[in-house]
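Project standup — Tuesday

K.O.: blocked on the structure for the chain from last sprint. Re-posting the sequence here as requested.
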Amino acid sequence: MKKHIPNTITCLNLVSGCIATFWAFQAEFHLALLFIVIGAVFDFFDGMTARLLHVSSPIGKELDSLADDITFGFAPSAVVFSYLSMAAVTGGAQLTGITLHVIPYLAFIMAAFSALRLAKFNLDERQALGFIGLPTPANALFWSSLIVGVGDSMVLNPYTLWIVLAAMLLSCYLLVSEIPMFALKFKTWGWRGNEIKYVFLITCIPLLLLLGVTGIAAIIAWYILLSVVQNYTKKS
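H.V.: unblocked you, prediction finished:
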């Protein structure tokens, strides 16, 4: 019986992603963000449960990737799609005809890159203690929280459409890049060797307090910047 518990939690992650996608298509971005966060919680506990119960399995690994691409690939793509649709119509981007309707569909490129990132992660043995490229949950939380936080104030700007598209393409690159990014895994609790992790955790609190929901997006951006700085420091 216990061998089915982690897969059940993974399926709850997948269901959360489906619900998030539904609300994204309704332009209810705060509800989409809520269910992406719920999916992330399930994603955290399915792996932990499998390790605690000693019931890890190949099917669980594959199911986890499928669920993650829904919750952290397709759902945030749907959020961006709906937002681009709004920006194209109301933002005065001087779009007409077929271009007006086609551009928002570019958002689903992110779902494809998320799937590619997940496939690479399953095969890449270098990512046991850290990540190579941006993790899909971080990317999903960035986009959903950013649009919830500042989307209303930006949607009328004629340049928003192009800014979002450019930023989305950058995030697609980061998903499959070879940039090492740290994971919040501690071998010891001392400061030495964990400096970047403690700096990150300490600065997360004021960002959330000052920026609210937008603080989640700021935290992800800060995480990427710290990872790049750490990588540059090691090379030098």
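K.O.: great, moving the ticket to review. The beta strands are 130-132, 180-182. The chain is about 75% helix and 5% strand.
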